[in-house]
Amino acid sequence: MSGTLENKKIPQFLINIALLLLSAIMFSLSFPSFINSTGFPFLAYFALFPAFIVTYRMKWIAAPFFGLFLGLISYAIFNYWLASFFPITIIIVPLLYATYYLLLFPVLKLSNILFIRKSFIINSIIWVGYEYLRTKGFLGYSYGIIGYTQYLFPPIVRVSSLTGIWGISLLVIFPSAFLGYVFKDGFKDWLAKLKKTVIEEKIILIIYALIFTSALFYGSFNTVDISKLKTWKVSLIQHNIDPWQGGYATYRESLTRLKRLSEKAVLDSPDIIIWSETSFVPAIDWHTRYRPDPKLYELVKELKDFLAIQTIPFLIGNGEGILITDEKGENKRIDYNAALLFEPGGKQKAIYRKTHLVPFTEHFPYKKQVPFLYKLLEESDTHFWEKGKEYTVFEIDSKNSGIKIKFSTPICFEDTFGYISREFVLNGADVIVNITNDSWSGSIAAEVQHMMHAVFRAAENQRSVVRSTNGGITCIIDPNGKIISRIDPFIESFLTDEVPVNDSGYTLYTKIGDLFGIIFAILSILVILLKLAIFCKKIVTKHKS
């Protein structure tokens, strides 16, 4: 008899695994992928409904396992290109999200039990709250937030000027949560099941449709009039060489290409020429002061001689080396991942030091707590940087438009976090300039997955975003979140174009930041605890009676 029961459980287990696998695939394909480099954004609205079905069917004991499975498979497919970034990260990131989902699935299961017919509403809120929480702390990571899939639809993107990415994620995840609730008992007679939804559920659907329509209306008409803005003429250099290859030959070839492309760009009479993150690797100031390597110093000197004859400013991604005395009284070099602004004539005017470093590959603060992992990272030729502390705002004159330009430079990974660009804007930046090195990925999908975040940074603050990358996607995004010009990835080229400069007013998002994400996270916890307390009280009262 027990054998018969076990045999009955096996097919349901396999069905649940198949549903989770389907969700993992649809989730990954909603974003740019190896199948389609732009992704299938519409798929995002339904991608996770098979997973929500499983949260209703699964037993408590199976919830952590199913969550672990979905997280592991989803991010192994979605972030496949991490294997090119740093081999250990293709293991760490899927395992990290396996752990997150392992914790998330029991919470969704509890929500389904406590709220029953309203569970799909609570589950939507829980999902967005989870998305917000996973962007915080040392392991904070914004890739895979479901709202980012909508980057190609400006009316939806512009909603972020109110709610940040969080309101968009709520709009996208709700259909999956609702369909998961409707089809929790199977797909047989699916049309009849949709018709049998009670009047209260139909009212909720109508409310959702009205909110979605209002969002489209807002995004369609609440736009910055680009025609009335003055512009900043920039030249963006995409030299298509990976500095991670290292060595003198790479640095030599990189400088040769950068100079060649810049000399061509100068003919367009831009207000500034912008090079990508660590486009020039040898730390300019360090090698000028200490000259530890004659060959690298010769490269630095060649660059400085080149800048000395330029009549326009240059922004260059470079490392900054500083000599300090450590706690033992010994001299020690520390390095920052930096953006350096040079005036016409080659004098360095200002610097920004990257404040939010990539975990494990740029920064690992747990040397004492996990010494074996720190040693493993060091032996893997990891270059650790120090964290910057200031949100620098650069200022230069625009000869073409006759205005002062205030801009800030989130470096690479930093443009994936809304709070950083917001801080720059609050400090006075009128344009966001992201300098990036993504050439190591060798994947167009990876380049677009990164670029899609910048679209939202523009719309959130209604400020243009300029991206200068060494391999892609080099582009200009206007204050409405529309890509107005770009270079194809993985080619040697440059882009000169006018950047709309919006220096008036703050959006709601710029004023309140990620408040909606915080609200969803707190609300998720409070409603679960409150309902659980009521549920437990009823059980105790019933037991006493």
Q: What number of domains?
A: 2
Outline type: globular
> Could you describe the largest sheet, including whether it forms a barrel?
6 strands, mixed
Based on secondary structure, the structural category is: alpha/beta
- Tally of helical runs: 19
Strand order of the largest sheet: 5-4-3-2-1-12
Mean pLDDT, all residues: 91
For the terminal residues, how far apart are their CA atoms? 37 Å
> What is the gyration radius calculated from CA atoms?
26 Å
Low-confidence stretches: 1-7
- The proportion of residues forming helix, as a percent range, comes to 40-55%
Number of strands: 12
**What is the percentage of strand-forming residues?**
5-15%
Write a concise synopsis of the structure shown:
The chain has helices at residues 2-30, 49-57, 63-78, 82-85, 89-115, 119-133, 154-157, 160-163, 165-182, 190-195, 199-221, 248-266, 284-289, 294-308, 371-379, 418-426, 444-461, 508-512, 515-544; strands spanning 230-238, 272-274, 314-325, 331-342, 348-353, 394-398, 403-408, 431-436, 464-469, 475-477, 483-486, 493-501.
Characteristic key phrases:
545 residues; alpha/beta; Nitrilase/N-carbamoyl-D-aminoacid amidohydrolase; 2 domains; six-stranded mixed β-sheet; 19 helices; 12 strands; 49% helix
